[in-house]
Amino acid sequence: MAVSSCLTKPLFLFLLVSCIFISTIKATEDEDTIYGDECDYEIVVSTGKSQGPTNYRLSVVLTTKNGENISTSDFVGEWGDMGRYHTFFQADSESGFMETGPCFTTSFCNIEIGGGNGSNGGGRLKPHWYVNNITVITRGDKINDRVRTFHFFGKHHNIARTNPPVSYGNCRKSHKKKSQKKKH
């Protein structure tokens, strides 16, 4: 009986330490990716002197510094937050959008706006869409409100095409050292 008691205590301690170690690793992984809670993402598009694409299916991808993202293939239809019959992207106005999704640990650093190859000229917007800025506000229980405004290359940037997508931001990608060949 003394032998089994001597083996039980070390085994118990080993299992206890292992469980604590594994739970610590899991908690660290969770902190690096997303919170368990959901956040509300409010997006405000400030249109310039020309009306934007009212009957056009826009896709939007918002990317964080860690490479995580939220996206939609129907920006107005899925995220539009101004009523069913509202005309979005009027000249010199603001259009509001709302999405609920996972809370990310880092802020958004890039926005991409795209469109399909439908009847609207393969992505060409008519008339061209002038965007002053797009502001993204992140709200959640475990984070302070985050605000990021994407200014499209100065005031009244002309977005003529959304295919290929228009992208704006300053996400820093991890730079791997590449071996450079010497010129002879």
TrEMBL record:
Q: Where is the composition biased (Basic residues)?
A: 172-184
Q: Which residues cross the membrane?
A: none
**In its UniProt entry, what is this protein called?**
PLAT domain-containing protein
Identify the keywords attached in UniProt to this record, alphabetized. Signal
Residue ranges for the region (Disordered) are 163-184
Q: Where is the signal peptide?
A: 1-27
InterPro entries (alphabetical): PLAT/LH2_dom_sf
